[in-house]
Amino acid sequence: MSLFICSVCGHIEFTEVPTACPVCESSAEKCIRNDRIFEESTEKSKEAAIKHIPAVTVNKKCGLIPEQSCTDINVRIGATLHPMESAHFIRFIDCYVDDTYVSRVDLTPGVFAAGCFHLKTTGSKVTIVEKCNVHGYWNREVSL
Questions:
Q1: Residue 98 pLDDT > 90, yes or no?
Q2: Counting Cβ atoms within 10 Å, is residue 67 exposed (0-12), middle (13-18) or buried (19+)?
Q3: DSSP for residue 88
Q4: Coil vs helix vs strand at 126
Q5: pLDDT of res. 139
Q6: Looking at residue 116, what is its pLDDT?
Q7: Which CATH code of 2.30.120.10, 3.40.50.150, 2.60.40.10, 2.60.40.730 fits the domain covering 46-143?
Q8: What distances in angstroms separate CA 74 from CA 3, 46, 57, one per listed residue?
Q9: CA-to-CA distance for 127 and 124, rounded, in angstroms?
Q10: Tens digit of each residue's pLDDT (9 = 90 or more) over 24-45
Q11: Which positions ≥6 away from 81 have C-beta within 8 Å?
Q12: pTM
């Protein structure tokens, strides 16, 4: 699979370069190809996986928007919760449905390393991508 990273905001695009980044609207020229971005993070810090691989829960019945067809995607970063300190924190959590970007949760050290996406879209799989300011990119894919 081809992976393209926006050098401005860190967004990852699967398969092909977008005409503009869906997060920051930077041009395609700002995207850098790196098909090994996830492997590189693991190779740099194998022991870091326990605090970086997203734990993803899919709830077919939305607790916040029950009057609509909505699926909740709850994300927690790490089996051991990732620290959120000024020197070491999760910058963002991105959500994709069938490799198409849906939304981002930006994080700061003042919150827990977690987020929720309320999906209107349907598909066969959800991919969660997170970026740690120290240990790089990590991901998890689950079936819808």
A1: yes
A2: exposed
A3: B
A4: strand
A5: 96
A6: 96
A7: 2.60.40.730
A8: 24, 25, 5
A9: 10
A10: 999 999 999 999 999 999 888 7
A11: 51, 112, 113, 114
A12: 0.94
